[in-house]
Every structure is written in structure tokens, then in C-alpha cells.
Amino acid sequence: MSKLFTPPYPVPPKTKPNPIKRFRLGWNSWIHTLFEKSYTMKLGETHLPNVAIYMANDQDVVHRVLDDCRDADDGNPRTFPKHWLLDELLEPLVGNGIFVANGKDWEEQRRMMNPAFQHTHLKLTFAMMQAAVDEVIGRMAAEDLSRPVHVDPFMTHLAADIIFRTMFSVPLDAEGAARIFHAFHRFQSQMQPSITLHIFGLPKFGYRKRAVKAAAKIHTVFAEIVRERYDNYHATGDAGPEDILQSLLEARNPTSGAPFTFAELIDQISVIFLAGHETSASAMTWALYILSECPHVATAMRAELEAATGGGPIRFETLKSLTMTRNVFKETLRLYPPVSFLLREVTAPIRFRDKLLKPKAMVAVSPWLLQRSPDWWQCPHAFDPDRFERPDQADACKRAYLPFGRGPRVCIGAGFAQQEAVLLLASAVRRFDIAAIPGDKPDPISRLTLRPKHGARVRLSLRPSVPDQMGDDAPVGEV
């Protein structure tokens, strides 16, 4: 491959920021608070007014925190549950849903929800994903392509539409998608200052209240659907079509035998919706931007696709042959992990690397740092999808690559997210030539998720023709 492209990232300062500078930088983005040594240190330490933070890059510590969640095999309580700061951050969006629950509560919720994820079986969801991808590609093709195209809203609509179809058996309309996009942007822009003020022991000055209002607007997109089916189920016993909501309506607590209440159901739907759309939208946005800067990679992906399909439509069986496309997405996740920091709480005194961590301290495991560590990765800040095929990077790919987390709380939708992304990227390079806008570099900021600060723009040019999914040749631009 030719000279490697290095996509934008905040070049870290040489020295650790003092508390005032950390406050100012953290107001907008967590990754901007990192400094040069953050990428090589084994266990960093920062003490702020409301929390002591230990940044763990040592593999033994990472393993202990994420994988070995119990003190022993005798059923003792979890030593490193999700940190209380996540409750503060996510409660307006997901309540006490499975993403933030801990201990027995988490275990019971997970057992209740496991059957629902049968509806994310990759082969069963392929046709639904393909329909959503075809629609978003058609909407992008219908834009005024003489002007730059803002990628973010399209990827938000796609990811939200796919999870909507999976959860509720209905597509998401453009109005709902726009409401989600703007409300989620509003939520992150208000919650980030709120959390920063909180960890520095300062009043929140209304930021949290405004974040709560934004979260409520996201809930309105699906609350009516959930209410109608919830009431109908408890009145008639009919849970509706076979989808995630049907499984959640029929789920029962393994201890009490009780179903989810309406409020609990909204919490769990919110978790699935957040995990199923926002993280995927972030990663697909970054992937399309990177392809705009690497046309030779897009050309290779296109050749791979045509070899796999013979010029015909993309089938489920096609996806396993798209190694290059899959590696492009994996490398995008390495450089831009949607969730850049995994936060755990110390519940009992423990010593790591000669440091005594006290209860309530935070241990932060950062996919952003681990996946850019020069100790593990060659040219760590460069885009190099071929690294996933090289033997000399195999250990790094196994041990220092965790965009979906690790251990018992690893993201259950990892395969689902990768399938929709590979399908989108393959469809995009087939339909469009994707070009960068000179000098237009998106600035990554890390809040709840990792997004371009002002969005990502590319130039799209229609390619001559593509086969539709029914197997016929369709002129470009038709949906």
C-alpha cells in the first residue's frame, strides 16, 4: 500500500495539564485532556475534587478490571462495577437500564434481555439492513452533489432506522431521524459541561436540566410505539410482531417472575437504541470520511466487492468475502472507538502497580489510548487496514483492541454493528466515488461518544450504474 494516511486527532501536549487547563479542555472533550505520556504510561493518576482517576494501560490491570470481575470464584460482589459517574451521565437517557446497572440487578436484567437479542441474528436481519442501506444510499444520491455532503445525519438515520426495524418492525421516518440527530447533539453538548462541573465539585448551572430535556425529546421518537404495544399486551396478551419489543414484553424477572414495568421497558429500549444507533453512526461517519482521503482503498474495496458478487447484488453470503471492507471498518474502530473510555469503580481497597486505589476511585480503561499505543501498534495514528492481516500485529489485535469493550459486559451487538457497517461501506463505494474536501478536516471530540465536532463532509460523485438487490441493473440515483 502507498504512504499511509494519518487522519486527524488532537496532538497531545508534552506535559500534563494543570487542573485549570484540564477543566477547560474537558469542558468540550475528554481526549483533549490527554498528554504525551498518556499514550505510554501504565497506570496514570489524577486527583480531582470529586473523583480520583486512574488511567489503566497495563494489560494486567485491564484484564483484572474488565475480565476478572469477581474477587474469587465464590460469588463475591463485583469489585469493578460501572462507575457512579456513568449514572450521572446516562440516567437521563437510559434510566437504570442494563448499560448502567450493576451486581444482581444487572445479572437479572441481562437474563431477561438475552432472548431479545435472538432478533439480531445476522442472517435474519440481513434483508432488513439491506433495505435500510438501500434507502439511505438513495437519499444520499438524491442530494445536490455539486455541493459537499454532510455525512453525519445520513449515518444517524441509517443506524437508527436499522435498530428501529429490529426493535419495532417499522422503519424510522426522516422527521424522527432528524429529531434524534439534533436532540442527541444537544444532549452531548449540555451533558459534557455538566459532568465536568460535577467532577470539579461545582454547581451545574442548568446544563444537566437542559440535557434531560434533550433526552426526553429522543424518547418521544419511540415512546408512543412502546406505550401502544405495552397496553395492548397487558390487555390482550398479544405482544405484537416477532421483534425485540415483543421479547421484552414477554420477559420475566428470573427471581420474582415479574415483567418489565412500562418505565423499565422504556429504559431497556433506550439502552438498545443508544447502543444500537449512536455508536454505529459515529463509526460509519468516520469510515466514510477516511475513505474520502484514501481513494485507493475505496478502489480496492470496490474490486473486492465485484469479485465477490460477479457484478450482482450483495447477498448475505457475500459479506464473508469482503475482508478488505471489514478491515477498513475495524481500523476505523481502532482509530475512532465510539466509546473512548470505559469507566469502572473501585469497591474495595486494591493495589495496582504499587498504587493503593481506594473505594469510589475510578479506573478508566481507554480504547482510544490502548488502540493508539506505540507499545502495541506500528504507526499507531495512521490508517492501515492491512495491519489486521499481518502476523506481526496479531498480538496487538488480540490484546489491545477493544472497541466493543471486553469481559462479561462486552457489547452484545458487536456482530450486528459490523454487519451493517460492512454492508453500508460496500454499497457506498459501489454507488459513489468519495472524495475529500481540501483543508476540511473533522475535529474529533470525545463526550459520551466520539464524533466530529462540526460534522464530517465529503464530495460524492455518482458512478455509472449499480445492480439493485433484486438482481436487475438500476440507473444510479433511483431508489
UniProtKB/TrEMBL annotation:
InterPro entries in alphabetical order: Cyt_P450, Cyt_P450_CS, Cyt_P450_E_grp-I, Cyt_P450_sf, Cytochrome_P450_Monoox
Coiled-coil spans in chain: none
Metal-binding recorded as keyword: yes
Record's signal peptide: none
UniProt keyword rRNA processing present: no
Protein keywords: Heme, Iron, Metal-binding, Monooxygenase, Oxidoreductase
Pfam families the UniProt entry points to: p450
Similarity comment: family membership: Belongs to the cytochrome P450 family.
The protein's name: Cytochrome P450
